[in-house]
Amino acid sequence: MPAFILFSRTRGKPFFPEHPRADSRLAGTKMANEQRRRASVKLYTRPGCHLCDEAKREMSAAACEDLYVIEEINIDTDPELRRRYGWDIPVITINGTLAFKHRLTSEDFREEVRRAVES
User: Fold this and answer.
1) 82 found inside a domain
2) What would the pLDDT profile of 45-88 be if each residue is shown by its tens digit?
3) 43: domain CATH number?
4) What's phi and psi for 36, nearest 5 deg?
5) H helices present in 37-119, as ranges
6) What are phi and psi of 7, to 5 degrees?
7) Are 73 and 40 in contact (CB under 8 A)?
8) Nearest one of 61, 54, 42 to 116, comparing CA atoms
9) Torsion of Cα atoms, 102 then 103 then 109 then 112, to 10°
10) Average pLDDT over residues 93-109
């Protein structure tokens, strides 16, 4: 039996620091915190859009994939999105806020994602 026992603040159950799975429990919490700190990026696009392909290349070149989760949305599948964006694509939002329209650089994208994660 360990010399001391810590109690979890959330569950009130004993927590044994030298327990073999103690590190994995802490790692799970750390992983959950890291996942929460990822930005939500939406890329509004359509097939055959050369500026959209360029934007994807710049986003990839930013080398910060671990900081965001991306959702690619084809505006041609929704009449409202097609009406709203038309030929004004690509449009990129980060955490629901318009971040880029038409063009972006990898440096600017990385900076905006980091700013979104930190806020």
Assistant:
1) yes
2) 999 999 999 999 999 999 999 999 999 999 999 999 999 999 99
3) 3.40.30.10
4) -65, -25
5) 50-61, 79-85, 106-118
6) -110, 135
7) no
8) 42
9) -50
10) 97
Closest CA to 117 of 32, 37, 33: 37
Q: Is residue 5 part of a domain?
A: no
Tokens 């710049």 belong to 58
Q: Which residue range is the domain that position 69 belongs to?
A: 39-118
Distances (CA, A) of 44 to 51, 54, 75, 80: 11, 13, 6, 12
User: Model-level pTM?
Assistant: 0.69
Question: In sequence order, what are the beta bridge partners of 42?
Answer: 71, 93
Check pLDDT > 60 for residue 31.
no
